[in-house]
What we know:
Layout: H1 19-63, E1 67-73, E2 80-86, E3 92-96, H2 99-112
Antiparallel strand pairs: 1-2, 2-3
Amino acid sequence: MSVTTGQNTTATATVIVDPAERTQALADARRRASQSALANAEAGETRRADRMQDARAIIERALGANTKLSISRDGASPTYIYRAIDVDTGEVIREWPPAEFVEFIAQQNKSSNVDDPSGVVVDEQA
């Protein structure tokens, strides 16, 4: 019988793993992770394609079947301009905001020398 006082004794168990089994287990884990990543990527691509198809359908309903949407930023103001353009003729079918509004904002920015046009025209809050 042996007695030890004041010492911490911990039992350790040694597990012997076959290197071939370990290699196979790691390969299986990598394969499962790769398959999961591929499935997630394919699902994401499918969702993106569905969103693009939905967006095209909405634009087609709003603008017409033979049009394209052009989005540009006016250099004189912080306003974006949206144009529906006929694909065959290149004619602008619809534009919003109207050009007059964009010119008005640009003039207000020039006269007030501010980047934020809020409060320039109306000085009251609703």
